Amino acid sequence: MANCESDNIDILTGLTERHLVPIDFLEDGQSAARKSNILVHQHVLRPFSLLRSAAANEGFDLRICSGFRSFQRQRLIWNEKLSGLRPVFDNNGKPVVLDQLSDWQKLQAVLRWSALPGSSRHHWGTDFDVYDASTLPKDYQIKLVPDECEGNGIFADLHDWLSDFFSKYPDGFYRPYAVDRGGVSPEKWHISYGPIATPYSSQLTKDMIQNALLLDGNVKYISVVLEFLDEIIERFVLT
Ligand SMILES: [Zn+2]
Predict the structure, then answer these.
(1) Comparing C-alpha atoms, which of 101, 51, 93, 78 is closest to residue 222?
(2) Backbone angles phi, psi at 216, to 5 degrees
(3) What's residue 91's pLDDT?
(4) What is the b/e burial string over 92-121, where b = at least 16 CB atoms within 10 angstroms of the residue's CB?
(5) Closest to 120 measured CA to CA, from 179, 69, 182
(6) Within the chain, which residues score under 70 in pLDDT?
(7) Is pTM beyond 0.85 here?
(8) Could you list which residues have their CB under 5 Å from ion ligand 1?
(9) Would you state the pLDDT for residue 217?
(10) How much is the pLDDT for 2?
(11) What pLDDT sits at residue 5?
(12) What pLDDT does 57 receive?
């Protein structure tokens, strides 16, 4: 079986779409031709459909707002945040003024919410940001913040149900960022399919990330990234 690590480098670092398929969320009466632009790993499509059916039985309309993201897409987010074109938030959801920070502090502020290109779990197609479309008011802009997922939050019921479901079936989906270890902020909305994501996570190496960054050559603050790459991987990639 051809499944050695080198075969997967482009999957692990977001440089290919060959492992992906589009996922559709069709309403009654909608045409199957209406393809969504959300891509997921071909072997996660079925487990996700089963999770979605289980959620539907409880009245939730479980959907993905962000599935696969390519290296290039992650680079755009990274570069825009570091150029001030996209806001960077602190732990309390307040905008961070990057100008007042050292270069390494800037990177850490961005890394709290956004992965370094080449190291995002969204590259794999196994990880999704999810929400409940059944509670969505018209014109509501999904923010993906903790307040939406807790207490009286709009998606809190879905997340309470997901928590129960994940503890009942621990061999399927889980939340890789459930606990704040000082790296990536806790993201309740981010779920991962363990049977595929966990092997990917253990195959990803510093060399693979570094090579992807150098090959691309367009990632902002690349010299600071390379200087602190060990620490970035330890604090923000290994979860
Ligand atoms: Zn996510």
Answers:
(1) 78
(2) -70, -50
(3) 79
(4) eeeebebeeeeeeebbbbbbbbbbbbbbbb
(5) 69
(6) 1-6, 26-36, 239
(7) yes
(8) 129, 190
(9) 96
(10) 46
(11) 53
(12) 97
CA 29 to ligand 1 center in whole angstroms: 30
| Strand pairing category for 173-174 and 62-66 | unpaired
136 C-alpha to ligand 1 centroid (Å): 19
Across the beta sheet with 62-66, what order do the strands follow?
62-66, 127-132, 190-193, 173-174
- DSSP assignment of 41-98 equals ETTTHHHHHHHHHHHHHTT--EEEEE----HHHHHHHHHHHHTTSS--B-TTSPBP-G
DSSP state of 153: -
| C-alpha 148 – ligand 1 centre gap (Å) | 15
Domain residue ranges of the chain, discontinuous segments joined by +: 5-237
Residue type, 116: L
Per-residue confidence (pLDDT) for residue 31, from 0 to 100? 55
Ligand 1 mean position, distance from CA 236 (Å): 13
Query: What is the whole-number distance in angstroms between the Cα of residue 57 and the centre of ligand 1?
Result: 25
pLDDT digits (tens, 9 = 90+) for 189-231: 999 999 999 999 999 999 999 999 999 999 999 999 999 999 9
Decide: residue 212, CB within 10 A, 0-12 exposed, 13-18 middle, 19+ buried: buried
Tell me the CA–centroid distance for residue 175 and ligand 1, in Å: 10
Ligand 1 centre distance from Cα of residue 62 (Å): 15
Inter-residue contact 72 to 28 (CB < 8 Å): no
Fold of 5-237: Muramoyl-pentapeptide Carboxypeptidase; domain 2 (3.30.1380)
Rounded CA separation 236/238 (Å): 6
* Nearest to 185, CA basis, from 194, 176, 197: 176
Q: What tokens were used for 34?
A: 């209406």
